[in-house]
Amino acid sequence: MGSFSMWHWLIVLAIVLLLFGRGKIPELMGDVAKGIKSFKKGISDDEADTTASGKSVDHKADETK
């Protein structure tokens, strides 16, 4: 009862294909890829803005207050 057999995976695949259809899955994966690309672009833009505005702080280990 530990893992799924090949029959379990085939049944799951058949159910997914029935629910989404063959045309919806590539469309869904394309939307996921676009989301990942825009997330990465937003992160890189944020890092570029932070370093360009001079908000980065250099810490020195030997400084004490």
Describe the protein:
The structure is a single chain. The chain has one helix spanning about 5-50. It is mainly α and about 60 residues long. The longest helix is centred in the middle third of the chain and has 47 residues, at about 5-50.
Salient structural properties:
65 residues, mainly alpha, 1 helix
Number of strands: 0
- What is the chain-wise order of helices and strands? H
How much beta, percentage-wise?
Answer: under 5%
Global structural class: mainly alpha
Separation, N- and C-terminal Cα atoms: 60 Å
- CA-based gyration radius: 24 Å
Mean pLDDT: 79
Main pleated-sheet profile: none
Number of helices: 1
Stretches where pLDDT falls below 50 for ≥5 residues?
none
Helix percentage? over 70%
Which of globular, elongated, flat, extended, rod-shaped describes the shape?
Answer: elongated
In short:
The protein is elongated and about 60 Å long. By secondary structure, it is mainly alpha-helical. It starts with 5 loop residues before the first helix and ends in a 13-residue tail after the last helix.
